Amino acid sequence: MRAAGAGRLSLILVLLIAAAVVGAVLLGETAFNASQWRAAFTDPTSGPAEVLWAVRAPRAVTALMVGAALGLSGAVMQGLLRNPLADPGVLGVSALAALGAAGAIVLGWAAFPGTVELAALVGAGIAGGLLVLFSARVRSPEALILFGVAVSSFAGAATALIFNLSPSPIASAEVMSWLLGSVQNRSWVDVAWVTPAVALAAVLATVAAPGLRMLSLGEETARTSGLPMARLRLLALFAAALATGAAVAAAGVIGFVGLAAPHLVRAAVRGDPARLLLPSALAGGLMLVLADLLARLTPTDQELKLGVFTALVGAPLFALIAWRAAREWRL
Fold first, then answer.
1. Is residue 329 part of a domain?
2. Could you tell me if residue 104 is inside a domain?
3. Cα separations (Å) of 105 from 86, 170, 180, 244?
């Protein structure tokens, strides 16, 4: 029954994603007339075709992959830590990835294509390595959360120090723009490198899924299950760190997606952490594609940053989810 419910939900989410991506490609600030629409689909060198297939399409697909990465990472974190409030930023991976990107921008490396993204991935890799070393010695999820909070606090302070010591207001503005999160001006090159990273994270998370299921039954049950729990924990950490690092490298810091996406689909899989992974990734992708489309279509003088928009919409949404969960718990 659980498998059927998860499969049916995943199919519905895939169809909704397809519709959302089509909408994100066809809709935008620029309104086309009939001849321009015809040129967009018949003449690849025309201006309308450039807008649809070189600007909107890669932006929509990048939003999809980033959202999927955040949703997957959130599901892994909540299963690994047995905490429904865990998200990709709880262990400091997002903060260290953002610190790496901020440092690269202030040092002037942004002039070289791909260096900021690489710096963000390196920051996420360092965070993942620290977490792996710590978890090898201390297996308590509470201790891991506290260590992640410490890493996140340090990275946040270091990022603030970069703002304080930045030699140029232009560099500070670029760092702030990155930290607010956006998929604006993304190309197929961005899609080409972020997609394999998310796919690898999904494979690692799938391998670690039996361990996440055992952890939901309690630490004692997990230890006596016969599964290589230490290795599965490490794989789950690698998956979450890689997915989060790829998301931050591609789009900057975007909140609430990794936190809310698993909660939107949890009831359909009856809380099974293993079956939660795919629906959470799909839900995260759908959320971010729709959020980016709404951010583009919102009539403002300056386009809303994606991270700002997800926070504005995500906070009330998550409050509603928490209220419903508390109400069900009382009943």
1. no
2. yes
3. 29, 10, 14, 20
- Residue among 268, 261, 228 nearest 75 (CA): 261
- Tell me the CATH number at 61: 1.10.3470.10
What does each of the 331 residues of the chain score in pLDDT, given as a tens digit? 455 566 788 899 999 999 999 999 998 877 788 888 888 888 888 888 899 999 999 999 999 999 999 999 999 988 888 777 777 777 788 888 889 888 888 888 777 877 888 888 888 888 888 877 887 777 677 787 888 888 888 988 998 888 777 777 777 777 887 788 888 888 898 899 899 999 999 999 999 999 888 887 777 777 777 777 778 888 988 898 889 888 988 888 888 888 888 988 888 887 788 889 999 999 999 999 999 998 888 877 777 788 888 887 777 776 776 676 556 544 4
Round to the nearest angstrom and report the end-to-end CA distance of the chain. Answer: 24
70: three-class secondary structure by DSSP: helix
- Cα-based distances in Å from 246 to 7, 99, 211, 249: 26, 14, 24, 5
Question: Where in the sequence is the domain holding 150, given as residue range(s)?
Answer: 2-23+33-320
In a domain, 325, yes or no: no
pTM comes to 0.88
**Phi, psi (degrees; rounded to nearest 5) at 183:** -115, 20
Judge whether 168 lies within some domain: yes
The tally of domains found in the chain comes to: 1
